[in-house]
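ARCHIVE CARD
Drawer: 12
Card no.: 0347
Subject: one protein chain, sequence and derived structure
Cross-reference: see card 0346
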Amino acid sequence: MLGIETSCDETGVALYDRDRGLLAHRLYSQIRLHADYGGVVPELASRDHVRKLLPLVRQTLADAGLGLADLAGVAYTAGPGLAGALLVGAAAARSLAWALERPAIGVHHMEGHLLAPMLEADPPEPPYVALLVSGGHSMLIEVTAIGRYRLLGDTLDDAAGEAFDKTAKLMGLPYPGGPALARLAETGTAGRFRFARPMTDRPGLDFSFSGLKTQALLAWQASAGDDQARADLARGFEEAVVDTLAIKCRRALAATGVRRLVIAGGVGANRRLRAQLAEAAAQEGFAVYFPRPAFCTDNGAMIALAGALRLAAGQLEPPAIAVHPRWDLETLPLAAV
């Protein structure tokens, strides 16, 4: 199965076999293209996907020692995401499938993230609670089967990754800000800046990080603005976000009675978050699963896996180039493999 990911600013291609696992994967990031703008420019992202996608497909096939005729099907991200970027992947995938007389299937980007831990040697079995945390999402989801998802909590404003990026920008850190802030936090002094753990003092599983971002701005403006203050503030901000995510994860496990926790999405690569949840799991007796950091961010491997599972379950789609920039995860059909 060929998997194609073009939902935003990363072009991902992978080959997955249900018997042999992941055969090859490649990823091209547009970070340098968008750095001067401080964020993703949709039109530039779409144009760069056009330039990079087919060469990446050829390179990934060569890595696996395969040709186009060896493909059993093509999976692509159909949404949610940037409309133009999604259309590049959808058009390429559908064209390849039509020319090769192979099936093609559009994959929900969030489902790809939810299933990414299945690429690892010790994959989780449903039921589990998933924390899907990235630049655009902070969601807690109960997964009882592939395609059976129940939203437990969502962000009311900024997602955790977005709050990381915006806080990094106000402190003058380079793009992309979130990873830069996390690296800087490793050199910061604990306790100098103490921020609220938003919405943890009330019932519920929703998130809100806009107020935390405002607290960080006010603290930065009141500080000396030197390198040590920047590192200490990064440490305090990261601790507040991580504590909030961990508290809500443990609360979701208690509410559902599930004892497996999956962490997915770009912020899932954060070292402090991983360490804190691993420690909590050891102390409280639940299991926690992380994809490798390369599969926390957008990638083709998770799309190839999700597509392979859905095609194996007999899910077929009409041969149309269709994308869904907004797409409710809970509307997906059950995939009984």
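Annotation on reverse: The chain has a mean pLDDT of 96. The domain at 122-290 is CATH 3.30.420.40 (Nucleotidyltransferase; domain 5).
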